[in-house]
């Protein structure tokens, strides 16, 4: 994974409170496990049937039978529990997962996401993302601010198939953090060195600005 992806994962960590049961989606979200300051304080779950996921193993410690839902190797923390995928989805659908961290292809102005299909490309299916959006108490998106071609991922209206109608709660990119409040995006944080002007230029959806620490962002705003 790239430095940018790791920065995004690290920026997610402050949004995860101690004691939370957290499901990490495929891609950037899986990196969150490597940035938790006290992994014992958070219980990581993967929908293929493990509660107590640890950080990414060193190459010499890889167990080919121990993987997350994206089929990449993981570690299990002491006291971890294993169970059938059906029981795992029972946890999710029953509201027992406190936080889901998901990737996204697009996020619309209402905070709804598309993260499972690209038109014209073969897909295996929506996987667990739909269940997590409906069942998790809080949903955080971890994604790059723009696509590989430089186009905005945060758009007025998604052109890719929506994963669910439920909006997410927080959107974290390498450049900014938005919350979703009353059906609108609210910019609450800028990454160091990022200007408000840059975010406006690379965000194709309307948003309200309510920076939680204006003094820290004063220089960036003045240069916007």
Low-confidence stretches: 219-224
Helix and strand composition category: alpha/beta
Question: CATH H-level name... which superfamily?
Answer: Glutaconate Coenzyme A-transferase
Text of the CATH class: Alpha Beta
Strand order of the largest sheet: 4-3-2-1-5-8-9-10-11-12
Q: How would you describe the shape?
A: globular
- Helical content (DSSP H or I, runs of 4+): 10-25%
Tell me the radius of gyration: 17 Å
Distance between the termini: 30 Å
Strand percentage lies at 15-25%
Determine the mean pLDDT. 91
Keywords: Transferase
Organism: Planosporangium thailandense
Protein name: 3-oxoacid CoA-transferase subunit B
Pfam family, one: CoA_trans
Q: What are its keywords?
A:
single chain, 224 residues, Glutaconate Coenzyme A-transferase, two-stranded antiparallel ribbon, 5 helices, 12 strands, disordered C terminus
């Amino acid at each position: 994974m790239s430095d940018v992806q790791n920065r995004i994962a690290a920026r997610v960590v402050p949004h995860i409170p101690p004691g939370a049961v957290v499901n990490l989606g495929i891609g950037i979200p899986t990196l969150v496990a490597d940035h938790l300051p006290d992994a014992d304080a958070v219980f990581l779950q993967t929908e293929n049937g493990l509660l107590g996921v640890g950080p990414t193993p060193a190459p010499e410690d890889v167990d080919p039978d121990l993987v997350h839902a994206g089929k990449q190797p993981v570690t299990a923390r002491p006291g971890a529990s294993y169970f059938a995928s059906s029981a795992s989805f029972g946890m999710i659908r029953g509201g027992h997962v406190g936080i889901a961290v998901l990737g996204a292809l697009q996020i619309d102005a209402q905070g709804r996401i598309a993260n499972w299909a690209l038109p014209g490309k073969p897909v295996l299916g929506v996987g667990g993302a739909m269940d997590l959006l409906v069942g998790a108490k809080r949903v955080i998106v971890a994604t790059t601010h723009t696509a590989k071609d430089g186009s905005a991922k945060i758009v007025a209206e998604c052109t890719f198939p929506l994963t669910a109608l439920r909006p997410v709660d927080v959107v974290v990119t390498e450049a900014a953090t938005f919350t979703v409040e009353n059906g609108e995006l609210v910019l609450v944080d800028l990454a160091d060195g990022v200007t408000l002007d840059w975010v406006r230029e690379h965000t194709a959806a309307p948003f309200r600005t309510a920076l939680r620490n204006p003094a820290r962002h004063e220089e960036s705003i003045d240069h916007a």
